[in-house]
């Protein structure tokens, strides 16, 4: 049971990191200049995204102790499904039929993997 909690927590942190990255770059003036890149990296949302990713990566090490890599890594595909949902809910991105159908295919693939 703990291994599944670790996996879900790691995915949730990685997804949160992506949402914070997106919010941070939306609020910054990112371009190719060094100053702009540094300013963006220091934006609180971008910084928080890195923190969430770091914690997710640490949890990933514990996950690799408990799952075969051939199961754990493909299970991360569920994060693609969840990011579609969170992008629509939190960022106002369009939830298209193609995104929904693609997400259903991913869920079916992960379900087969865990059988």
Automatic annotation (TrEMBL):
Could you mention a single GO BP entry for this protein? lipopolysaccharide biosynthetic process
A GO MF label: transmembrane transporter activity
* Cellular compartments per GO CC: plasma membrane
Subcellular localization, as worded in the UniProt entry: Cell membrane
Could you tell me which residue ranges the EamA domain spans? 37-114
Give a yes or no for keyword GTP-binding in this entry: no
Annotated signal peptide: none
Question: What is the membrane topology here?
Answer: Multi-pass membrane protein
| Keywords on record | Cell inner membrane, Cell membrane, Lipid A biosynthesis, Lipid biosynthesis, Lipid metabolism, Lipopolysaccharide biosynthesis, Membrane, Transmembrane, Transmembrane helix
SUPFAM superfamilies given for it?
Multidrug resistance efflux transporter EmrE (SSF103481)
Query: What residue intervals traverse the membrane?
Result: 45-64, 71-91, 97-114
* Top-level lineage group: Bacteria
The cross-references to PANTHER family, in alphabetical order and at most eight, read: 4-AMINO-4-DEOXY-L-ARABINOSE-PHOSPHOUNDECAPRENOL FLIPPASE SUBUNIT ARNF-RELATED (PTHR30561:SF9), SMR FAMILY PROTON-DEPENDENT DRUG EFFLUX TRANSPORTER SUGE (PTHR30561)
- State what protein this is by name: EamA domain-containing protein
């Amino acid at each position: 049971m703990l291994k599944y909690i670790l996996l879900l927590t790691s995915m949730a942190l990685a997804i949160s990191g992506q949402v914070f990255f997106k919010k941070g770059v939306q609020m910054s003036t990112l371009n190719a200049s060094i100053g702009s890149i540094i300013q963006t990296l220091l934006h609180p949302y971008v910084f928080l995204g890195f923190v969430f990713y770091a914690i997710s990566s640490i949890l990933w090490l514990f996950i690799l102790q408990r799952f075969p890599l051939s199961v754990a890594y493909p299970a991360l595909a569920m994060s693609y499904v969840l990011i579609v949902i969170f992008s629509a809910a939190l960022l106002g991105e369009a939830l298209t039929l193609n995104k929904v159908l693609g997400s259903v295919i991913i869920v079916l693939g992960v379900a087969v993997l865990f059988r």
